[in-house]
Amino acid sequence: MSSTTPIWFITGASSGLGRALAEAVLARGWRAAITARTPEALSDLTAEHGNRALALALDVTDSRSVARAVHDAEAHFGSIDVLVNNAGYGYLAAIEEGENAEIRAQFETNVFGLIDVTRQVLPGMRARRRGHIFNVSSLGGLVAFAATGYYHATKFAVEALSESLSHEVKPLGIDVTILEPGAFRTDWAGRSMVESRTVIDEYAETSGKRRQATRSVSGKQPGDPARAAAAIISAFEAEEPPLRLLLGAPALKIARERLDALRANFDAWAETTLSVDFPS
User: Fold this and answer.
1) Is there a catalytic annotation at residue 220?
2) Is residue 122 one of the residues assigned to a domain?
3) What is the pLDDT of residues 211-258, one digit of tens each?
4) For the chain, which end, N or C, has fewer CB atoms within 10 Å of the first or last residue's CB respectively?
5) Is 2 among the domain residues?
6) pLDDT surpassing 80 at residue 120
7) How many domains does the chain have?
């Protein structure tokens, strides 16, 4: 997208990937509306970068908060060129262990919040016939494991929504990129993680083991948020930005294994698949 000083709008910018990206964008001399539920956590960035950094309170699950933040960003900067839907979190529970309130809360943030922010930003991008939307999915938007089924469900939804959106807005000059990080050294598996209080013994060897493994790697993940931020900026600056961008060596390895497994499954059942059509 052609803009020498693009204006970014980043959700969930108080920590992790969102924070690293905000720092990288501002370090380039660009402008950014950086949002968090508690914007005080961003005060150091606004102090360092002055009017180029606008810290805004944003709860993506509150439509009034979303509308207010987008309005304030556009009023301050004049437009939003790049939207990064980064706000989201994980939830550890076997499917049977899932608690209704927590399941719905996760979808409200990871899916419906992303939709709400996107729909607020799109009119301006459409009017200007330019823009770039980065939706943070996950390797877990391509492949699913035990104990994180509800999280995967939200990220599979993000994948589908983003792909459909790309078909709709590409002719209008708006790019969409789905970001698919693997394990990164953020708070995702630490303080940001929500865990079901319901524990069923029969799942100890499946979801139970994965719960423990997920908690144990917190702070030791191979992914570097600062390097991921640099990769995202590279995708933004590319002449032809990718629809999907895997982030990290484990993400690439597991995604390729997923492709191989899908092909093997499809090929093994191809005869049955072809048997269901009316004879030609």
Assistant:
1) no
2) yes
3) 998 888 777 787 899 999 999 999 999 999 999 999 999 999 999 999
4) C
5) no
6) yes
7) 1
Establish if 280 belongs to a structural domain. Answer: no
pTM: 0.95
Q: Does any domain span residue 279?
A: no
Range of the domain at 245: 7-274
- Report the CATH number that the domain containing residue 202 is assigned in CATH: 3.40.50.720
Q: Which of 79, 150, 155, 166 is the catalytic position? A: 155
Picking from 7, 10, 46, 13, the residue whose alpha carbon sits closest to that of residue 28 is 7
What does each C-alpha distance from 271 to 47, 234, 279, 280 come to in angstroms?
A: 64, 43, 14, 16
Cβ-Cβ contacts under 8 Å for 118 (sequence gap 6 or more): 83, 85, 133, 135, 165
Token pair for residue 266? 């499809």
Long-range Cβ contact pairs of 54-63 (< 8 A, separation 24 or more): 58/11, 58/87, 60/11, 60/87, 60/109, 60/113, 60/114, 60/116, 60/117, 61/105, 61/108, 61/109, 61/112, 61/113, 63/116
Residues 89, 91, 150, 151: which is the catalytic one? 151
Instruction: For residue 81, report the phi and psi dihedrals to the nearest 5 degrees.
Output: -95, -35
What confidence tens digit (pLDDT) does each residue in 134-166 have? 999 999 999 999 999 999 999 999 999 999 999
**Is residue 2's pLDDT more than 50?**
no
Any catalytic annotation for residue 151?
yes
Q: Is 155 a catalytic residue?
A: yes
β-pair partners for 36 = 57
